[in-house]
Design brief:
Number of domains: 1
Helix content: 10-25%
Shape: globular
Largest sheet: 8 strands, mixed
Number of strands: 13
CATH superfamily: Oxidoreductase, molybdopterin-binding domain
Strand content: 15-25%
Distance between the termini: 15 Å
CATH architecture: Alpha-Beta Complex
Order of helices and strands: HHEHHEEHEEHEEHEEEEHEEH
CATH topology: Sulfite Oxidase, Chain A, domain 2
Length: 317
């Protein structure tokens, strides 16, 4: 996802990808002592010790959609986009330790026959968990291969019986600035929101994830429940979901609000549509030096291209 501040910050003040990568290398070489001192001065919590212990999950089956090497647990949990904890990639793992993912509930509302407030246990009870190995692609031209644990989003949505007016489904992230230091700053408009067309949401590749590598989700990866849509750019993977709303009208997502000229509603991976400030034609797999070609729909063309038949995928980005 694009590292971006509020609209009043000039583009020239935003760190470029190359400078950012050099900064990462410097911090790794020099150690994080100075960074810890700075975060203390800013009043941010470095609370790794406070992070809740991860629990092992019972997985009933496994779906492998790629034979590419999986990224390590460390890669996946220390290089994240989760602006509620800060805009730098290391911030979520550093500052999410005080976040409390239990107890948890999700509000369901809008165009459906069975709205209500459901605990996480209510949501999980009827859904056997699967491990799904997915390629994941972010707008900043980096990617990972992640073994998510979850269940089909469509199976969950059917339980609430969306009616004929439900053309889209919208998701909302929790707002807890006392536990999420990024929300104390003008990084984005809170709460973070995302949306899918109903046929996208019902596609069997889209899942609600509750874990990775066979364990419950770490806070920095969206505990306790998040969206995973592998053929779209990573910012569609909204985290720490507390509300699901069925709507008749296409919702506006957070990045459309922040930068409508750079981000659209569909957010499909399309190497032929450049971001206004960089090319999308190549990507760098986390842990690799050389870039690789970006695949249309992130390599899931055979499964999802029919969803967009007849659409102009350069206009509907």
């Amino acid at each position: 996802m694009l590292i971006k501040k509020a609209p009043d910050i000039a583009l020239s003040e935003i760190t470029s990808e190359s400078v950012y990568l050099r900064r990462r290398e410097f911090l790794q070489a020099a150690g994080l002592t100075a960074a810890a001192a700075v975060t203390g001065a800013l009043g941010l919590e470095t609370s790794a010790d406070a992070a809740p212990a991860l629990e092992k999950l019972t997985v009933t089956k496994k779906m492998v959609t790629t034979t590419e090497e999986q990224n390590s647990f460390k890669d996946i949990t220390t290089y994240n986009n989760f602006y509620e904890f800060g805009a730098d990639k290391e911030d979520p793992s550093q500052y999410s330790g005080n976040f409390k993912p239990k107890p948890w509930s999700v509000v369901v509302e809008g165009e459906c026959a069975k709205p209500g407030t459901f605990t996480l246990e209510d949501i999980l009870k009827p859904h056997p968990l699967e491990e799904r190995v997915y390629r994941m692609r972010c707008v900043e031209a980096w990617s990972m291969v992640i073994p998510w644990v979850g269940f089909p989003l469509g199976d969950l949505l059917k339980r609430f019986e969306p009616n004929g007016n439900a053309k889209f489904v919208q998701f909302f992230t929790i707002v807890r600035p006392e536990e999420m230091p990024g929300q104390r700053r003008r990084i984005l408009s809170w709460p973070y929101t995302e949306g899918l067309r109903m046929d996208e949401a019902m596609h069997p590749l889209a899942i609600m994830a509750v874990g990775l590598y066979g364990q419950t989700l770490p806070n920095q990866n969206g505990a306790p429940i998040r969206l995973v849509v592998p053929w779209k750019y990573g910012f569609k993977g909204i985290k720490s979901i507390v509300k699901i709303r069925f709507t008749a009208q296409q919702p506006v997502n957070t990045w459309q609000v922040m930068a409508a000229n750079e981000y659209g509603f569909y957010s499909n991976v399309n190497p032929n549509v450049d971001h206004p400030r960089w090319s999308q034609a190549t990507e760098r797999r986390l842990g690799e030096f050389f870039k690789r070609k970006t695949l249309m729909f992130n390599g899931y063309t055979d499964q999802v291209a029919s969803l967009y038949k007849g659409m102009d995928l350069q206009k509907n980005y």
